[in-house]
Amino acid sequence: MVDVITLGEAMAVFTPLQRGPLRSAGLFQRGMGGAEANFAVGVSRLGLGARYLTLLGDDEFGRYILHELRGDGVDTSGVRLVSGRPTGLNVKEVREGGGGKTFYYRAGSAASTMSPADLSPDQFAGARWLHVSGVFGAVSESCRATVYRAIELAREAGLGIALDPNIRLKLWDEATARSVLLDLMGRVDYVFSGAEEGRILFGTDDPDRIARLALQLGPHTVVVKEGDRGATGYTQGGQRVHVPAFRVVVADTVGAGDAWAAGFTVGMLQGLGLEESIRFGNAAGALVCSVAGDIEGLPAWDELQAFLGRSPSPVDR
Predict the structure, then answer these.
(1) 0.85 exceeded by the pTM?
(2) Which helix (H) or strand (E) holds 269?
(3) pLDDT tens for residues 23-41?
(4) CA-to-CA distance for 12 and 87, rounded, in angstroms?
């Protein structure tokens, strides 16, 4: 059974085995990533059915990603290998403290050619939730049109719809990002915004102000993520709840926001309410930060529960 639908560009990710400038790195670990792919894997590991829609190059990286998605239980019935187009690449630079840079090699990729024609109503039938990200809408004009079409199909099928702006200024400029994302906010039910994204979208990093301005556009729930300060949720009905962050030793921050979205989504679909769902998101994001790589730290359900102190931690002998 598929509970959650998402679409985006999955990439082969190369992470250096040493910290510092990328030009000094000699050894790399191969993995896979991409905001929406990370989210799909996160949802699947937490026990719900996730369907991922994308195009991959009919090449070794594409086949590797398809294998990894299937191995994590993601429904790949909407994934297609495309001849003559490469799978996108992402090369990371990791600095002390988990920060760094990301270098994309995705121009002309298979996923960048995805269009509304690649979607069909039957892909959304029976699901409960659509998750879209600003990343995929920034990849190309046809990808942006595909995001809009996905929202239309999800609305027709009665799904809850969530938007993570996830702004990547290496893919589009601020003005375009602001115009598109503010328009999308008026078409969804849930918005997840970081404080930094609030500065771009609304000219402020104040969580209360970000939420007030976002709620005016139409979503019924907005969550503002504040990094190591936690996250605060707001609703049209006036609810405001803040949930502190969990403290972990940070190895790599990439993918933490996608893990947060997965944890929050699973919590909401299990009927746990806003506060508890934010706590799930905070825990999933913290666990990902403690491990290098985009998907490597995404927790399984029992791992998340153990981290939250709700089940005994497994004994490692």
Answers:
(1) yes
(2) helix 256-269
(3) 888 899 999 999 999 999 9
(4) 7
Position of tokens 């746990």? 272
Q: Model confidence at 288, in pLDDT bands (50, 70, 90)?
A: confident
Contacts of 19 (CB under 8 A, 6+ apart): 94, 95, 96
Structure tokens at 257: 């926001």
Catalytic residues: 258
User: What is the DSSP code (8-state) at residue 187?
Assistant: T
Q: DSSP state, 244?
A: P
C-alpha–C-alpha distance, residues 17 and 32, integer Å: 15
User: Measured between alpha carbons, how far is 3 from 13 in angstroms, rounded to an integer?
Assistant: 27
Q: How far apart are the first and last CA of the chain?
A: 36
Do the Cβ atoms of 114 and 55 come closer than 8 Å?
A: yes
Per the structure block, which two tokens stand in for 8?
Answer: 């985006």
Do you know the residue count of the chain?
317
State the architecture of 4-9+35-80+113-307 in CATH terms.
Answer: 3-Layer(aba) Sandwich (3.40)
